[in-house]
Amino acid sequence: MNHRFLKRLLPLACAAALLATGCGQHEPVQAGNAAAADAAVEAKKQENVLKGKIVGKSNKAKTISIEVGKGDKAKTQMVKFNDATQGIEHAAKGEAAIIEFTGEGKDRMATVIKPKLAKLPAGTSEMKPAELIAAINSGRKMVLVDCRPSPRYHEGSIPGAINIPVPAMAEKAPMLLPKDKDIQLVFFCGGPT
Predict the structure, then answer these.
(1) Domain housing 139
(2) N or C: which terminal CB in the chain sees fewer CB atoms within 10 Å?
């Protein structure tokens, strides 16, 4: 047989074999189908997540109770935890938390517990501790606002910071914050950054 003929025939034979066995046949992925698949995956993730306030934790029974929802629609949910549960330190009574779990009903097992952090208001940004130190050391004009309760503030704070606890913010901020809107305001508390 001619060598050139085999070179041309071989790729065609391979393609025909793949098509005959179904390896080359598949449904084309349409943008709508891909988006629907992504949405289904995201919805499944959300099914196994509880967001709310920790109302109790039993180390003996290895359970966590979390209140999900607000007002009349609030419901207390219970999940189990074990030594493999990550972030168990975030399951403190009264703290907002996000619990990821596996299983259903009474067999729900917490896999990860994370603190539920507040979203930053529009027009604000987060400043890491190293950035704050650099800004302070550079002499940048700014007002540091410690938002922790007054007793915590008096235990110690960043030098030069003023104290406006969150519950008193609406009342005290107009009196204590500068009128000059060009001065940078840096709010901080005792939470994770």
Answers:
(1) 129-188
(2) N
